[in-house]
Design a protein that fits this description.
It contains 14 helices and no strands. The protein folds into two domains: 1-67; 73-326, MetI-like fold. The chain is flat. It is an all-alpha fold. Helix 3 (84-90) crosses helix 13 (297-305), helix 4 packs across helix 8 and helix 4 (93-124) packs across helix 10.
Length: 327
């Protein structure tokens, strides 16, 4: 019995020693391969996340703080007012007029840029002489400083010295200067909004064409040739073959273009400053007028934050469709 007891004691000691050695040899949790892989991946993402938080997150939170206070340029102390600034904006007729102009401006410009960008992309994909030079010239509106291009268009739309009116008058398409047939592009409400939209389209549609060209170059020629053999015409190939294959590129390009158009302050401010009589006033220019020029920082921030619910549905819709296509 004593021998059996001693043997059992030795077996338990050996098992305990093996267990201790196994735990000692096992790596710590932070040294495991999976953990180190996650740490490495998140370390690569950290600069981009920090960049977004500093340049987007903090200004957004500061704008939210201003929008819920009565901050103004002349008062160093801001008091919490809750949703008062948002309520005041919703009760203002200028806000609803600016919101309507913003939607018309954004949707109209987006449709025109989609049509012109698609047409231009397909034309630039065709073989012809001087294609590189033409491509460089097409991109110039997007690369010229916005102040220079806007001031140039302001001169061309001038009520007296308009080169556009001069050319149309020589072609007998409009009347002479001083008559009712002489359009004042930036002085009449309907023409002013259309002129501002035209300049935005002229400046931005090369970006749409470049995005679409990048997608078209990624489509294998064999797929297009197979669709031609199957008897698909141009519109059928574009709608059922090309668009599904380049949809992620189109979604990202459309998202960026929507953001740029919806927040376009410079063109409207430089051309019309929101006039005449608020006909071209959009939410960014109204927020600038109220928050910066009038000094009501809280109300201006509240007006600018109304852009967020306009952009959020578009962003969610585009990103959800993009994720579905990835799966």
């Amino acid at each position: 019995m004593a021998q059996l007891s001693a043997r059992g004691e030795r077996d338990r000691s050996a098992a305990l020693a093996i267990e201790v050695a196994r735990h000692a040899a096992a790596p710590r949790w932070w040294r495991r391969v999976a953990v180190r892989r996650y740490v490495f991946g998140y370390s690569l993402l950290a600069p981009a996340v920090l960049f977004v938080l500093l340049l987007v997150g903090l200004p957004f939170l500061f704008s939210l703080y201003l929008a819920m206070s009565d901050a103004s340029v002349g008062d160093p102390v801001a008091r919490f007012v809750g949703l008062e600034n948002f309520r005041a904006a919703l009760e203002s007729s200028a806000f609803w007029s600016s919101l309507r102009n913003t939607l018309v401006f954004t949707v109209g410009a987006a449709i025109c840029k989609a049509l012109l960008g698609t047409t231009l992309a397909f034309l630039l994909m065709q073989p012809f002489r001087g294609k590189k030079v033409i491509r460089a010239l097409i991109v110039m509106p997007f690369t010229i400083p916005i102040a220079v291009s806007a001031l140039g268009w302001k001169w061309m739309f001038d009520s007296q010295f308009s080169v556009i009116n001069w050319a149309l008058s020589r072609l007998h398409l409009i009347g002479d200067f001083g008559t009712a047939g002489w359009p004042v592009w930036l002085g009449e409400p309907g023409l002013a909004l259309g002129s501002v939209m035209f300049v935005n389209v002229w400046r931005s549609f090369p970006f749409s064409a470049i995005v679409l060209m990048a997608g078209l170059t990624s489509v294998p020629p064999e797929v297009i040739d197979a669709a031609k053999v199957d008897g698909a015409n141009f519109l059928q190939r574009f709608r059922k073959v090309i668009v599904p294959m380049i949809a992620p590129i189109l979604f990202v390009g459309g998202l960026f273009d929507t953001v740029f158009t919806l927040s376009d302050l410079s063109i409207v401010y430089l051309l019309t400053n929101g006039g005449p009589d608020g006909a071209t006033e959009i939410l960014p220019t109204l927020a600038y007028q109220v928050g910066i020029k009038a000094g009501a920082l809280g109300r201006g921030a509240a007006i600018s934050l109304f852009l967020f619910p306009l952009l959020l549905p578009a962003m969610i819709l585009l990103l959800r469709n993009l994720r579905r296509r990835e799966w």
